[in-house]
Amino acid sequence: MTIAIALRTIVGVDPVLVFALRCWARATLWEAGEFDLQEAVDVLQYDAERDGLVDQLGEDCIEGIMASAFHRAREAGR
């Protein structure tokens, strides 16, 4: 059982929502200078693969969620 399935089954939390919120948080920290872009994105990509989200949603969708979060963080920082 992947972490994503366990979250949905045991806790009732939507793992896609959790991932999107994690993307927003890391993007905000990136914009604040806490991470470089590669470090921020690599962790999110690894976690999406580990949690089965890439298999569930597809790589394009995962990249789109990440890109949206980082774009919004950049726009908010201007």
Secondary structure elements and their pairing?
Elements: H1 3-11, H2 15-31, H3 37-50, H4 53-57, H5 59-77
Keywords:
single chain, 78 residues, mainly alpha, 5 helices, 82% helix
Which oligomerization state do the chains in this entry correspond to?
single chain
Percent in strands = under 5%
Q: Which structural class do you get from the secondary structure elements?
A: mainly alpha
Number of helices: 5
What is the overall shape? elongated
Task: Please outline the major beta sheet.
Answer: none
Helix-residue proportion: over 70%
Outline the structure in words.
- 82% of the residues lie in helices and 0% in strands.
- The N and C termini lie far apart (42 Å).
- It is mainly alpha-helical and 78 residues long.
- The model has no long low-confidence stretch (mean pLDDT 88).
- It has five helices and no strands.
- The chain has helices at 3-11, 15-31, 37-50, 53-57, 59-77.
- The longest helix is centred in the C-terminal third of the chain and has 19 residues, at 59-77.
- Helix 2 runs antiparallel to helix 3 and helix 2 runs parallel beside helix 5 (59-77).
